[in-house]
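Q&A log
Question type: sequence-to-structure
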Amino acid sequence: MNLIESVSCRIVRRKLRTSFTTALGSKNVASSVLVEVLLADGQKGLGEAPTSFVQPHETLPAMQGIFRQGRDFFRHKPINDYERLLATFAAGYPGFHMTLSALEVALFRANLYDKGRGEFEHWGARQKSIQTDITIPFLPVAKHLKSWLAKVGKTGFEHYKVKVSGQVERDMTFVKQVRDELATSGLPFALRLDGNQGYSAKSYQQMLRKLEKARIAPECFEQPLRRDDWAGLRKLPKDVAVPLILDETVFSAEQCRQALDERICQGVNIKIAKSGIAESAKIHRAVRQAGAKLMIGCMTETMVGLSAGIHLAAGRGGFDFIDLDSVHLMSPGKAFGGVTVTGCRYHVAEEQ
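Response status: OK
Response body:
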């Protein structure tokens, strides 16, 4: 029986290649806490807890403090009992979703390595290669938008996720700018929009009407309303041309089932960074059973955290929208955990 020897953590910071600007805020540096679970025989698992506008209370010091509390709690405990142990530990930190998700990923990986299995195999090993979209932050200044598109334009992206602000007129101007800039390349492209909670039910419907009038047909529209605005979501039309994908509203399988049962969305964005391993698997199952759209996304994570989502997306397969582009906002090209990057594609190999 392999025991947990230690839990440790360290801060990492990565400069972003462009300002990451959404309806919730703006940043030029991605900051995370990496957590490592070391086993008695030297094997280890890594997880990553990024900071996010969505969870402002999960600061670097707060996350470090929780991981340090985990040192004594998990030390000399059996790794194969990590799920029960984590449930007990997590009960003391309600609301710290990303911190606990990172710890779960580290424990999950250490447990898999102890069993001689890899993440890709665990999830089903269905696709060895997947293609991500690329985020276009809210960059309404033309020169900033052109600069970012020039940086990513030669990477082969076909799908562009455009961050919008919740201000209808500004957003329409920006979306048209993006469309026109991409059209000049002569290459095929598709747009996805992300509201990051910036709209009300009324302004969101105004935005949809203006998009239709401008003959702009996004593949989907992610989280237009506030995460807790269930009343507003219930007011929206059920049958729409642009699928509404919930992100920040859904952290758990219970929230996912409620949203799908009430038909307040047409799909859900799964993020391991916000929901962890076990809960993400439950959300995946619930969405598939409902026949809704499946999206997988990420925070501003390095390959340590991002690779967990890549393994899930490739291993399970069947995702309608893949938004796993955070390393392209930093310095793409690094391999981690059997994942390598070629342009907009990730290639997954079994770990030896």
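Response note: The two ends are 21 Å apart (CA to CA).
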